[in-house]
Amino acid sequence: MTEPNRADLGKDPTRVSRMFDQVAARYDLTNIAMTFGLDGLWRRATTRAVAPEPGERILDLAAGTCRSSASLARRGAHVVAADFSPGMLAEGRRRFGDVRNLEFVQADATDLPFEDDSFDAVTMSYGLRNVNQPRQALAELLRVTKPGGRLVINEFSTPPNPVFRELYRFYNDRVLPRVARVVGSNGDAYDYLNESIRAWPDQQTLAGWIREDGWTDVAYRNLTFGIVALHRARKPAPSA
After folding, report:
1. β-bridge pairing 78-83 and 57-61
2. Is residue 183 over pLDDT 70?
3. Distance between CA 78 and CA 70 in Å, rounded?
4. Helix-strand-coil percent breakdown of the chain, rounded to 5?
5. Start-to-end C-alpha separation, the chain
6. Who contacts 7 (Cβ-Cβ below 8 Å, separation ≥6)?
7. pLDDT of res. 63
8. What letter does residue 84 receive in the DSSP assignment?
9. Angle at 167 between CA 129 and CA 132, to 5 degrees
10. What is the DSSP letter of 148?
11. What pLDDT does residue 105 have?
């Protein structure tokens, strides 16, 4: 039996990748259980924000089991589902390998294997906080996006209401680990999930990073009282 792998806030890429390899088979089921189905609403909001058009080329980074990638591809865009976990990508291929215009690429978010100005839009859901150099990942996303192209990042965040924030933290500390151990394949991995959410900066800080790293038209909106936040931006177009 494989020894359960648990990442920590050092976010060593090898350990994080192995952790996601181990949870891949039951990853979606666990997320549905832990979020009471809200993950589906958040995923649909992300697809609407990306607004894929037929013929566009879109990068879905940290694609996981590729549910969002498949949703984007079914809108007619050519989608590259990229993740650094081979186990996640294998699960994505198993489920969605027959979806047209969808390809699968193993990739490191801090050193993407794509040429400059390759994509009309880039998106990343719940993956940026797992990268040990998130600012480098934002810079790489900027590099591979076409001038005028779109960025959409959906990430766990900080509920602004203090009462709801404390209820949410109680759920993460006391309830989420128990649900993960009943439903998931590696309960320890979800202890890391809770730690990474607590340590992650709030909405305003992430928006500031995106702006400082060269994106324009930076904005965000909270989903489900700020449990997650949907960030959007554009790569500057060349001056006339």
Report:
1. parallel
2. no
3. 10
4. 50, 20, 30
5. 61
6. 15, 16, 19, 130, 189, 192
7. 95
8. S
9. 10
10. E
11. 98
Structure tokens at 140: 């790489």
CA distance 177 to 189: 9
DSSP state of 218: E
CB atoms within 10 A of CB 209: 17
Q: Which residues of 110-132 are buried (b: 16+ CB within 10 A; e: fewer)?
A: bebebeeebbbbbbbbbbbbbbe
- Domain ranges (residues) in the chain: 13-234
The 10s digit of each residue's pLDDT in 106-131 is: 999 999 999 999 999 999 999 999 89
DSSP state string for 101-142: TEEEEE-BTTB-SS-TT-EEEEEEES-GGGSS-HHHHHHHHH
User: How would you label 210-232 residue by residue, b for 16+ Cβ within 10 Å and e otherwise?
Assistant: beebebeebebebbeebbbbbbb
Report pLDDT for 4: 47
Q: Looking at per-residue confidence, does 180 or 219 come out higher?
A: 219
The single-letter code of the amino acid at 92 is: G
Looking at this protein, which amino acid is placed at residue 165?
Answer: R
> Residue 223 is inside which H or E element, if any?
strand 216-223
Which residues are CB-neighbours of 208 under 8 A, at least 6 positions away? none
Instruction: Please tell me the least confidently modeled range out of 39-53, 65-79, 167-181, 209-223.
Output: 167-181
Instruction: Please state whether 64 falls in left (phi above 0), alpha (psi between -120 and 50) or beta.
Output: left
CA atoms within 13 A on the CB side of 219: 5
Architecture of the 13-234 domain: 3-Layer(aba) Sandwich (3.40)
